[in-house]
Structure formats: C-alpha cells, structure tokens
Amino acid sequence: MKNEKHRAPVAVILAAGIGSRLSPLTDNCPKSLLSVGGSVILERMIRNCLSCGMSQFVLVLGHRADEIKKFVDKTFRGIRVTYVINDRYRETNTGYSLMLASDAIGTAEFVKFDADVVFDVKILRQLLDSDNANVLCIDRNIALEDEEVKVIANDQMQVLEVGKSVDPKRALGESIGVEKISAGTGALLFVELSEMMESRGNLQAYYEAAYAQLVDKGTQFHALDISGLDWTEIDTAKDFAAANAMFSSPVTTLSRGQQKVLDEAADEAAIHTHV
C-alpha cells in the first residue's frame, strides 16, 4: 500500500450520538456497541483500521461515553486512543463533534468515520491507496432521497457539491460517511466548523456543511466510487436487520497484520515512555 511509506492517518470516529431511532435496541446500549454479524460495530471498525496499518485513534464520545471507553480499553490494549467528550451531545450534531476533535488530531492527516457505518475493509484500503489528498467515498448504487448525503462530481470525479440538500436527480451517489482529509485541509476544515458553530450558532449542522463550504471556496475533494462493495449506515431497525444480513461473519480475532500494528504501537509507546 502507498501509505506504508509514511505514517498512517489518524482514525477519527464520531460516536457521541444517542441513536434514538434504534430504540429499544439502544435504550440500554450505545449504538456503536450493538453487535452486527457477531461483532460489535465499533470493534469491527477498529479492526478494519488496524488491518490497514492505522494504530492511532481519536474517539469523540457523548452518550454513554464511559461504556464505550471501557469496551475499547478492554478490547484493544495496545492502540493509542485519545477520547474527546462532547458534553453537549444532546443539542449538537456531527459538525460540533468533529470540531471538538481538532486539538487531538493536531496537524495530522486523518480518516473520519461515522461510528454507525459498517463497511468492507476493502473500502478503507481503496481510500488509503488513493493519491488524492481529500477523498469522499461514494456509492452510486443507492436510490437517492432527501435523507442521503448526496454528491455531485464532474467527469474527473472532483466534487462540485455535497450535502443532504443536493438535488437527487443531479447527484452521482451517496457519501457513505468515510472520508480522508489532508493535514492542510483539516486546518481549513476546523476553522470552517468553528465559524459555523460559534459565529452562526448552528450547533445542529452536519460536518458535510463544512465540506460544502470548503468546496465552494476552492478546496478539491475527490469522489471515490466504492459501488459494489458492502457497507451500510445503521439508523433504524430496518437498517440493523439489513446490516446483519450483509455482514454475517464475525471479526473476533486479530489477524497477523492487526497484531503487527498493535505490537509496533506498543513499542513506540514504550520508547516515548523512556525518553
């Protein structure tokens, strides 16, 4: 993989939401800790990252944060995790959560994940292998309606528009909630998010609104077509059932690649401890 030649990007996982549309499944369990195909959603996501060489994580938590933190700390003892708490998770949305991760991410390249997305690891591999600095994964095989985050792109797959308000008839596909963001664009993104939240007071804005602002100002985003690969976003009981049908095999043991990443992360942590 191209990314093996330099430090892998930070994995930023947004997991602060309540998941009320999945009630009663989420009445006593955070959505990201529900089991799909025999594996916890968040566990599958982290293992996918590990298998691609990613060992540094930023988790933005809110609802039932202690339960999620306890699960991650117990399940993955060797990875580097920074927890960011969104205390205002009841009144804010994904844009606010991503903004809070700014200090933890610093100047690093990162891949942003919505914690309720279950996906084939091949999607992440293709994303990391892309030569483009800023990449949105899109699926062209989705029947687009108002709910989906839609993307319009030109023939070179450069993003022209992104958001829920995009005309479905003009859209190329749906953004699946997994994006690669360069360090330089990240700096611009966090400025945009801060202005959205603080100056305009739009606490309920989605992070895609900031992407759209950056696109309008000339920042280039590439649309990566992952059509045909398995993925699903889990918002409702219907989504949950579909996810379990799509992902029937559990991910419960570490592959050699995953264990190698954990060992390297542990060695690096030990070096820093003794410096």
How would you sum up this structure, described in words?
The strands form three sheets. Strands 1, 4, 5, 6, 8, 9, 10, 11 and 12 form a nine-stranded mixed sheet that branches. With 275 residues, this protein is of the alpha/beta class. 36% of the residues lie in helices and 22% in strands. It is globular, with a radius of gyration of 18 Å. The chain has one domain: Spore Coat Polysaccharide Biosynthesis Protein SpsA, Chain A. The longest helix is centred in the C-terminal third of the chain and has 19 residues, at 256-274. The protein has helices at residues 41-51, 65-75, 94-100, 102-105, 121-129, 183-199, 207-216, 237-246, 256-274, and strands at residues 10-15, 35-36, 39-40, 56-61, 80-85, 110-114, 117-119, 135-139, 150-153, 159-163, 173-181, 222-225, 231-233. Helix 6 crosses helix 7 (207-216). Residues 269-275 have low confidence and may be disordered. The chain starts with 9 loop residues before the first strand and ends with a helix. 45% of the residues are buried. It contains nine helices and 13 strands. Strand 2 (35-36) and strand 3 (39-40) form a beta hairpin.
Question: Radius of gyration, rounded?
Answer: 18 Å
Tell me roughly what share of residues is in helical segments. Answer: 25-40%
- Mean pLDDT reading: 90
Distance between the termini: 31 Å
Compressed to H and E, one letter per element, the order equals EEEHEHEHHEEHEEEEHHEEHH
How does the major sheet shape up? 9 strands, mixed
CATH topology: Spore Coat Polysaccharide Biosynthesis Protein SpsA, Chain A
The CATH architecture: Alpha-Beta Complex
> What is the CATH C-level name?
Alpha Beta
What is the count of helical runs?
Answer: 9
Strand percent estimate? 15-25%
Shape: globular
CATH superfamily: Spore Coat Polysaccharide Biosynthesis Protein SpsA, Chain A
